[in-house]
Amino acid sequence: MYINDKLVIGKNSEKEICLNLSKACMHGIITGASGSGKTTTLKVMAESFSDASVPVFLVDIKGDLSGLAFKGLEEGFVPKSVESLGIEDFEYKSFPVTFLDLYGKKGHSVRTTVENVGADLLAKMLNLTDAQEGILSIVFKIAKDENLKLIDLKDLKEILTYCLENKNKYTGIYGNITSQSIGAIQRNILVLERDGGDFFFGKPDFNLKDLMHYDANTGKGYINVFNAEELFKTPSLYAVFLVWLLTSIYNIFEEVGSARKPKLVLFFDEAHLIFSEMPANIIKQITGIVKLIRSKGVGVYFISQSPSDIPGEVLAQLGNKIQHVLRSYTPAEEKKVKAAASSFRSNPKFDMVSEIKSLKTGEALISFLDENGEPSITEKAFVVPPQSRVGVITDTERINLITSGHLYNKYKDLIDEESAFEILSSRKEKEKVEEKKETKKEEKKSTKKKKDSVAEKYAKKIANSTASTIGRKIGNSIFKSLFK
After folding, report:
1. Torsional class of 4: left (φ above 0), alpha (ψ -120 to 50), beta (otherwise)
2. What ranges in 86-129 are assigned the alpha helix state H?
3. For the chain, what is the largest distance between any 2 Cα atoms, rounded to a whole number of angstroms?
4. pLDDT at 463 over 90
5. How far is CA 285 from the centre of its chain?
6. Element (H, E) at 17
7. 3-state secondary structure of 402
8. In a 3-state reduction of DSSP, which class is residue 196?
9. Residue 229 exposed, middle or buried by CB count within 10 Å (0-12, 13-18, 19+)
């Protein structure tokens, strides 16, 4: 719920626990065991940001956040929660939603081009060595200089092969191109393709500024629900997508400095899957972006089971914290509970470790940044209930929303325009035709030489035979004249 530049996220018997809208760009984290209420908390926060005219991008791992698009019903746990928390004037609402999907199955396709990603970021995605990254940069430079568009992975594979076949032509101009590095890059591309990366690269490429959309009638920020039910099965590609999204937003958005509210807020669910699959160089990349992207007016929130799932360098950037119950049955789990407790500002009214282990479903320890940017004393509270529909929507409802959405016509069709693959393939065909022509010319020359050689031999034979006959006749004639 949004009230006077504050988002009401939790409530206890003493007060409402609010997130200061002006501090929302200082990022945050929602943690807790499975079934503890993390998804509901994410949903409530997304609704509140939307009400505050802040667009939201969130990753929907289980498909159960689609209900944001429909008005809530007075059923399930919601009315009980409203009553027990004493929330007055609670209103069931729907929110403007855009559905997105990397694979284009449950939302508008989210694509980008290879050249938009660029050699540096693509090298990180492919986990290349410095030498291999250098070769990839050379390949991108050749593509640019020769006006060869790199749109999808088939373009990239084709130009890698082309550069290898013509390395003698380019080495003196751009630097050494080795078959070992080209081979390694091609193998890593195959891994990316296997994980579904070929769906990610193509046209029309998604304009990230399309995330910044508002409902014309209500002024609510659109909630962009990115369906990741399939993507969830390939964590490495999920990590690649995350890096691209954060990097691109940082590069595209303008600096805003200190703002009254964010321009955009991002929520990444199941964050432990991202970081467990990431090599050190990508974690370093994300850490840098998370630190800097707040200056672009963008808030980033990670959702995971435990704060220890998040690398320390990233965790240090997350100022707004919500901790649901963590269960402790083993020494390792106990260690995680203690680590979670130590990441919050303590409250002398209760023991943090004991409270984390005994929280009820929907209950949480909450510490948001205050007006001065300092962590507030941790409060124990129940998260307020969502105002939109709880649970998934039907396929028919989803399709109707997608086809009637403002982005449908823009992204519905894949565009396969002429690019490096087509141009280089055409060159090869022309070269083959020219080679055939040259081969035929050579064959004709060879045949002619053979014919000329045979004719010459035959002529010589005739000449020799003729000369021999003439010689005999002359000799006979002379012999006869001598003995007449």
Report:
1. left
2. 114-125
3. 158
4. no
5. 14
6. strand 16-20
7. helix
8. coil
9. middle
Provide the token pair at 313: 């360098």
Q: Residue written as tokens 């013509």?
A: 166
Dist CA 38 CA 361 (whole Å)? 9
Least trusted range by pLDDT, from 206-210, 272-276, 394-398:
272-276
Task: Give residue-wise pLDDT tens across range 185-225.
Answer: 999 999 989 888 888 999 999 999 999 999 999 999 999 99
Measured CA to CA, the distance from residue 40 to residue 301 in angstroms comes to 14
Burial 372-384 (b: 16+ CB within 10 A, else e): eeebbebbbbbbb
User: Which residues 6+ apart lie within 8 Å of 278 measured at CB?
Assistant: 239, 286
Give the H/E segment covering residue 257. Answer: none
303: β partners:
30
DSSP characters over 134-164: HHHHHHHHHHHHTT----SHHHHHHHHHHHH
3-state secondary structure at position 115: helix
How many of the other CB atoms lie within 10 Å of CB of 176?
A: 13
Q: Is 98:106 a contact under the CB 8 Å cutoff?
A: no
Q: Rounded CA gap, 106 and 402, in Å?
A: 8
| Measured distance CA(177)–CA(201) in Å, rounded | 25
- 266: β partners: 57, 300
Tokens of 130: 């410095």
C-alpha closest to that of 282 among 326, 318, 321, 314: 314
CA distance linking residue 401 with residue 420, whole number of Å: 36
Residue 145's Cβ-count burial label (10 Å; 0-12, 13-18, 19+) is exposed
Range 2-111+204-411 has CATH code 3.40.50.300: yes
Report cis status (omega within 30 of 0) of the bond before 307: no
Distance, in Å, from the CA atom of 39 to the CA atom of 33, rounded to the nearest integer, reads 11
Q: Is the dihedral of CA 14, 384, 346, 356 positive or negative?
A: positive
| Domain residue extents for the chain | 2-111+204-411, 114-199
pTM for the structure as a whole: 0.86
CA–CA distance, 24 with 48 (Å, rounded to integer): 12
Q: Which pair of structure tokens corresponds to residue 425?
A: 């393939």
Distance CA 454, CA 60 (A): 81
Residue type, 58: L
pLDDT for 459 equals 64
Q: Three-state SS for 259? A: coil
Q: How far apart are CA 19 and CA 320, in angstroms?
A: 8
d(CA 260, CA 205): 31
